[in-house]
Each structure stands twice: as structure tokens, then as C-alpha cells.
Amino acid sequence: MFKVALLLAVVVAGVSARNLQRIVGGQDAKADEGRYQVSLRTLMNQHFCGGAILTGTWIVTAGHCTLGKKPKEFQAAVGSLSVNGGLSHRVGYVFRHPNFDAHTLTDDIALLKTDTSIIFNDFVQPALLSERFIPEGIEALLTGWGQQVYPGSVSRTLQALPMVTMSNEECIERHSEDIYSPPIRQGNICAIRENAGACMGDSGSPLILGNELVGIVSWGVPCAKNFGDVFTRISSYRSWIIESINGRDE
């Protein structure tokens, strides 16, 4: 019997309560594979979650990554493959989905607005919001600084892992073996790679198809147990994201 885990690194008083490690089975990311990636960090520069760049001031991440986090008390770093590198921007505004449920992980998505503008270049770019329902059998790329083994040692370099999407029906069937698994809904997308996948520290990190953001890491059975990892499906929240950003940029 396995226990479901939120795939974030718990940080208390600036000290990680778990080792921050790599995606299980991943490889060092190429520079252009990390162009959408965000590292969410404490003010003491401790990575705890990932995210994806949407605009010059807006980032999307998992809703559970923002629990206990107040504006001005954490930062978002972009533009580096190093878990400690990049240019940091203080997070000035946190908008978690109003229907987010920390127990069932329903609507596990949040928007962050930075106090300063993110400067785009060849290695820092906004991801396009997916408009389409991604079917099963499609290869997409997961990036993040999560654990390589559970538990394990810190990865200093962003990891990349090609994964294949699966139907929600298959995902539900696989997770039926674990009584702790939250419900899998239409607002989720699942992806799998044999003996590989997301782990602690990957929550909120992007699942990318081309330059299209199709998912952000929500939860999984730790780690790489071939259940399939569960992501928040971006196409299901595209309208909410656009309306929320437009309403707060006016």
C-alpha cells in the first residue's frame, strides 16, 4: 500500500524538511528546455516548488504550493538550470483558485504576480496556454528539480523527462490500487514513464508539448511507482487563468 504525496518540498524556517532532489529517471535539461520553468523559493533561496511563466509578471503553479505562503515572503527565480541560480522576483500577489480543496486537491492551481517584470530572452519565455483536450498517447516533457530517488540527494541541475499521457480512465484504474489517492477529475491530466516520474519538489512544474503548457504537477504516489503522475489540466482552467489575469491587470 502506497501513500499519496503532494510533490512539493516542505520548507520550515528556511530549512528543507526533505532533501530537494531530481525528477526520478530524468536527464539534465538543455538550456531551451528550461525556458518556461520557475523555481519557487523561500527568501533564504530554498527551492520548494516549480511553476511556469505565463506573462512578464504572471506565473502559474499548483494551488497546494501556496498553502501557508504570504505575498512578499517568497520569490520566483527564472533563467537558470541551477536550483540556486537565475534572476529572482519577489512574489507580490497570490491568487489561489477559489474552489481549491487541500484534501481532495480539486482545482489545484494558483496564479502568482511578481513585483518586478520578467525579462524575456532565448532562455526565458512565456508558455502558451493549452486550448485543447490532450488525448492519451501523446509525448510531453516534464521539467523540474524534484527528487531523483525517494528520499535522495539534492540536484543542482534542472531535470527533463519525456512522459506519455494516459486517459483519465486508465489513470483512475491504476490509482484504484491505492486507497489514499484523491479523486481524478476532468480537470486533471495524467502522464507516465516506466520507472520514472515526478517526485518531491516537482509540484507546480510544467508539462510541455512543444511550446504549449498542458499541465502542472499536482500529486502522485511517491515516486515513479508506475501509477502515473497527476497534473492539473491547463485547458480546463484556461478561461479562469485569462479572466483572473485580466481582472487584476486592469
Automatic annotation (TrEMBL):
Pfam family, one: Trypsin
Stated name of the protein: Uncharacterized protein
Protein family per UniProt: Belongs to the peptidase S1 family. CLIP subfamily.
Keywords of the record: Digestion, Disulfide bond, Hydrolase, Protease, Serine protease
PANTHER family for the chain: FI18310P1-RELATED (PTHR24276:SF98), POLYSERASE-RELATED (PTHR24276)
Species whose genome carries this gene: Phlebotomus papatasi
Keyword Protease: yes
Superkingdom per UniProt: Eukaryota
Localization per Swiss-Prot or TrEMBL: Secreted, Extracellular space
GO CC annotations on file: extracellular region
Predominant cellular place of this UniProt entry's protein: secreted
GO BP: digestion; proteolysis
GO molecular function: serine-type endopeptidase activity
UniProt cross-references to InterPro entries, sorted A to Z: Peptidase_S1 (IPR050430), Peptidase_S1_PA (IPR009003), Peptidase_S1_PA_chymotrypsin (IPR043504), Peptidase_S1A (IPR001314), Trypsin_dom (IPR001254), TRYPSIN_HIS (IPR018114), TRYPSIN_SER (IPR033116)
Signal peptide as annotated in the record: none
Residue ranges crossing the lipid bilayer per the database entry: none
